[in-house]
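Listing S7. Sequence submitted for prediction.
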Amino acid sequence: MSSFFRVCSTLIIAAVLYLPSQAQTNTFEVRIANHAVGTIEASRKINGAAKNIVIKTRIQTILAKITSDINNEYHNNVLSVSKSSRISGKSGEDKQTTTHRNGKDYTIVLNGNRSVISDAVIEECVADLYFAEPKSVSRVFSEAQGRFLALKAVGNGQYELVMPEGKKNIYKYENGTLVQVEVNHTFGKALFVKNDR
C-alpha cells in the first residue's frame, strides 16, 4: 500500500512541476509628436489556472517623468488582486490603486479612498488589451481608475476605450495582436507603437 502512495505522490509532483507554463512579453515605444519619449513593457505569464500580467511604463519628457506599474493576478481568468501605481512627481497627479477580490465583491482603494464593487466578476482589464484583441468585450476594468470603462469596436481591428473624463483611447490590432495605442493624456496625444512589427 505504501508503494502505491509513493507512486501516486511521485506522479502528482511530476505533473505539478511540468504543468505547461506560457510567458509572453510585448514592448512598445511611447511617442509624442513623433519623438520617442519612453517604453512600455507588458509581460504575461500563465501557469495552469494562474495568470499574472505586469505592465511597466517609463516616460521622460522635458516637462515630466512618469513611472507607471500595473501588476494583476488572476485565478481561472478572474482577477483576484491588482496593484497600480502612477508617479509623476506633480502634486495631485500621483495615483495608487489596489483592487482585491473578497468572495463576490471587490474592494478598491484609490489614493486612500475605499470603495466596493458588489457582486462582480472581473475577467477583462486594461492590461489584458496588450495581449489579445477584445472581440465581443464591451467593458474592461481599469486597474488605475478602479472602475469599469466602456470599450467599443469601431472597425478595422480598432477599439475605443472611453476614459472617465470622456477622452477616448484607440487600440489597434492586426491579426489579433495589439500594434498601436493612441492615447489622449494630460501631456497631449501619445502613440504606443509595438516593437518588432
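Caption to Listing S7: primary sequence and predicted C-alpha cells for the chain studied. The chain has one helix and 14 strands. Residues 7-19 have pLDDT under 50 and may be disordered.
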